[in-house]
């Protein structure tokens, strides 16, 4: 029987070495057998991915995992061996923000900011697949991302602004 990628891992002093593609570059993490991807990312300096509930309920830990937004607090780190992961650090930076990040700021959708990385990951995936989404589609895409500060109105507005920005950018190319 063919082995899956995780079965090929062996522990050394209780830690497994996993290799993954992180934000477009090869990365290696040493992880405990019971560690989750969220903690592994943060322990290796990728702290843009936020730890909210740690129980799969708030969406603040959303990352791109093999092409889809997933909750990093629910992904056993060893299963990320051989995977392609994208975090908020790969979307944009303070100096070079992504148009979606600009739109969140412009719309006033950022208060404490804790939910924003996860929301941006969800919004980016939506806009890559549905460039001009309806409000219902935006609400559905952000459904798993909880925000304690806002009423979501400005964040929905932000995704509409981002959609326009990205479509304008595409049209001008
Ligand atoms: S920290 Fe993962 S869903 Fe809340
Ligand atoms: S802006 Fe504070 S949790 Fe969303």
Q: Secondary-structure map with pairings?
A:
Elements: E1 11-12, E2 15-22, E3 25-31, H1 37-43, E4 62-65, E5 68-71, E6 84-86, H2 99-106, H3 116-129, H4 135-141, H5 153-171
Parallel strand pairs: 2-6
Antiparallel strand pairs: 1-2, 2-3, 4-5, 4-6
Bound molecules: FE2/S2 (inorganic) cluster (FES) (2 copies).
Question: What's a concise summary of this model?
Answer:
32% of the residues lie in helices and 16% in strands. With 173 residues, the protein is of the alpha+beta class.
Helix content: 25-40%
Bound molecules: FE2/S2 (inorganic) cluster
The value of Rg in angstroms is 17 Å
* CATH level-two architecture of the largest domain: Roll
State the distance separating the first and last CA atoms: 49 Å
CATH homologous superfamily classification of the largest domain: Beta-grasp domain
> How many helices?
5
Question: Remind me, CATH topology of the largest domain?
Answer: Ubiquitin-like (UB roll)
Work out the strand percent. Answer: 15-25%
Query: What's the count of strands?
Result: 6
Descriptive terms for the model:
173 residues; alpha+beta; Ubiquitin-like (UB roll); DNA polymerase, domain 1; six-stranded mixed sheet; 32% helix; elongated
Kindly describe this structure.
With 173 residues, this protein is an alpha+beta fold. It has 2 domains: 6-90, Ubiquitin-like (UB roll); 99-167, Orthogonal Bundle (DNA polymerase, domain 1), CATH 1.10.150.120. Helix content is 32%, strand content 16%. It has helices at residues 37-43, 99-106, 116-129, 135-141, 153-171, and strands at 11-12, 15-22, 25-31, 62-65, 68-71, 84-86. Strands 1, 2, 3, 4, 5 and 6 form a 6-stranded mixed β-sheet that branches. α2 packs across α5. The longest helix has 19 residues, at 153-171. The termini are far apart. The model has no long low-confidence stretch (mean pLDDT 95). The structure holds FE2/S2 (inorganic) cluster (2 copies).
